[in-house]
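Exercise: predict the fold of this chain.
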Amino acid sequence: MPSKIGPYTCTKTLGAGITSKVKLATDGEGKQFAIKIFEKDNSAVDDGLLKALRAEVACLKDIPHHNNIVNMMEFNEDAIWEKSSGEQKRIMYVVLELISGGELFDFVATSGALPENICRYYFRQMLSALHALHSKGTTHRDLKPENVLVDEHYNLRLADFGFAAPIEGRDGSGQLRTKLGTESYMAPEIHAK
């Protein structure tokens, strides 16, 4: 018997980390999604993570659906996960579009360097996604090939908005003061701080 979260039937695990697990989920109409699950009794799910998760959800709610962004469908901060064993867990979850092609990083690692015309095509898609974010006053702050997914039509989809923040800074000063992101992808001026 598969596990259930609200109207979703969950099957295989797509990924897992310290704070969450991502499962393949199907709704009552047979449409598939990726559901990111945070167990409330997990000690790694603390107030800091909850604050970051709420900020990520707020960011995704403000952005209109976009063809080059992994779009959020639903967020529930207080739900029950009925596991296939019959055990029930208190959880929070985020339902996202299912993007089945994997990460751009893996795509390039297995296929090698992309030809210039493909790079231009992908660059336009990234600019379109970033324009959508910036026009809503949001910056991503962790752009890297691991946070860009490839969909079934080989289009890029920007993902992982955990570090996203208002462009004007959280205090409205016009400054983003926190050193965030993945070090090997950070701009030199961030390292200089």
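Check your answer against the key: DSSP finds four helices and ten strands in the chain.
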